[in-house]
């Protein structure tokens, strides 16, 4: 079976369908005939794909999500020329009410990775999916955790020249995605050597469970058609514990940990900052090294911190 990268670049045609939203901002080109030829496996079937420079876009049909989620894959300079070289991968997770295009359209991830030998994978995570498999959904399948860990990561490793190992992967994210990064790094200890959270919650139960209530409410109305992420009115306590960074401290040994939050008060950052401080204190108590920053402003991605994060990921991961 052909992989996407064995296909001739001469077969590129003008973008259509799902790539059209991206075409408005970049000269996107779509691969011809690849839905059947390129991407079956791991429960995924490519339904659309496109490329512009280093950035490649894919959309999948999967039983884990009842609609077709998209991803951006940002390749390093020279990827198609240096065919002998393998690369570390950074999985970069967006926040709530965002999608897989966030870091490309808003945060200049292309500029921040210029000249750096790193693959960046930016997947859909749902409007309020919280990088979780919900207790119940009335909107069809919304198993974001299973999609990412059981399908997408193996597909990336099979279709790109990666290091399919702990020292070859990092995970980072903003807000809801920062929580997802901390959660994935703890629950799937052998998958990631580096974890970063940009204004992401690190403590689910503090402040009378404010973050769980936040996650449950946002998922109920924006994602699950009235369903529940962690259980309503009673939480599935085992799920909360399994997902709660401050209750999974032993899973953060031997990892690079990078934490950022703002000093201003708002409905998001106030709770994020309190949770990150609790998490940092617990890490320090265990003697677990971590890098942290509290900076002016509230709930947004700070370009200089994302740049520092990218460079720190490259320093920690296995070299290309």
Automatic annotation (TrEMBL):
This protein's record includes keyword Repeat: no
Broad class of enzyme this protein falls into: transferase
**Family of the protein in this entry:** Belongs to the mycobacterial A85 antigen family.
Keyword Transferase on this protein? Answer: yes
Signal peptide (residue range): 1-37
Q: Which NCBIfam families match?
A: TAT_signal_seq
Matching entries from InterPro entries are given as: AB_hydrolase_fold (IPR029058), Esterase-like (IPR000801), Mycobacterial_A85_antigen (IPR050583), TAT_signal (IPR006311), TAT_signal_bac_arc (IPR019546)
Q: For this protein, what reaction is catalysed?
A: an acyl-CoA + a 1,2-diacyl-sn-glycerol = a triacyl-sn-glycerol + CoA; 2 alpha,alpha'-trehalose 6-mycolate = alpha,alpha'-trehalose 6,6'-bismycolate + alpha,alpha-trehalose
Top-level taxon in the UniProt lineage: Bacteria
Question: Which segments cross the bilayer?
Answer: none
Q: What is its EC number?
A: 2.3.1.122, 2.3.1.20
Which ranges of the sequence are coiled-coil?
Answer: none
Which GO molecular function terms does the record list? diacylglycerol O-acyltransferase activity; trehalose O-mycolyltransferase activity
**Do you know which PROSITE patterns this protein is assigned to?**
TAT
Task: Quote the protein name from its UniProt record.
Answer: Acyl-CoA:diacylglycerol acyltransferase
Per the UniProt record, one Pfam family is Esterase
Keyword line? Acyltransferase, Signal, Transferase
């Amino acid at each position: 079976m052909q992989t996407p990268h064995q296909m001739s670049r001469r077969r590129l045609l003008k973008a259509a369908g799902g790539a059209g939203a991206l075409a408005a901002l970049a000269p996107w080109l779509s691969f011809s005939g690849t839905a059947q030829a390129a991407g079956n496996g791991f429960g995924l079937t490519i339904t659309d794909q496109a490329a512009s420079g280093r950035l490649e876009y894919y959309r999948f049909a999967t039983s884990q999500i009842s609609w077709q989620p998209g991803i951006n894959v940002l390749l390093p300079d020279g990827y198609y020329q240096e065919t002998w070289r393998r690369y570390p991968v950074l999985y970069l997770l967006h926040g709530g009410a965002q999608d897989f295009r966030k870091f490309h359209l808003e945060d200049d991830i292309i500029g921040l990775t210029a000249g750096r030998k790193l693959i960046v994978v930016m997947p859909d995570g749902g409007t309020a999916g919280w990088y979780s498999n919900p207790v119940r959904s009335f909107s069809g399948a919304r198993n974001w955790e299973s999609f990412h860990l059981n399908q997408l990561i193996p597909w990336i490793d099979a279709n790109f020249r990666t290091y399919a190992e702990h020292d070859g992967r990092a995970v980072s994210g903003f807000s809801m995605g920062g929580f997802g990064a901390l959660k994935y790094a703890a629950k799937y200890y052998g998958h990631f050597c580096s974890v970063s959270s940009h204004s992401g919650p690190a403590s689910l139960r503090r402040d009378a469970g404010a973050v769980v209530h936040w996650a449950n409410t946002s998922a109920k109305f924006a994602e699950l058609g009235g369903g529940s992420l962690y259980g309503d009115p009673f939480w599935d306590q085992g799920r909360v514990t399994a997902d709660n960074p401050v209750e999974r401290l032993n899973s953060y040994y031997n990892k690079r940990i990078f934490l950022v939050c703002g000093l201003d008060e708002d409905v998001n950052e106030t709770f994020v900052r309190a949770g990150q401080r609790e998490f940092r204190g617990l890490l320090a108590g265990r003697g677990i090294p971590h890098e942290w920053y509290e900076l002016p402003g509230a709930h947004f991605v700070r370009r200089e911190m994302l740049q520092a994060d990218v460079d720190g990921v490259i320093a920690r991961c296995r070299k290309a």
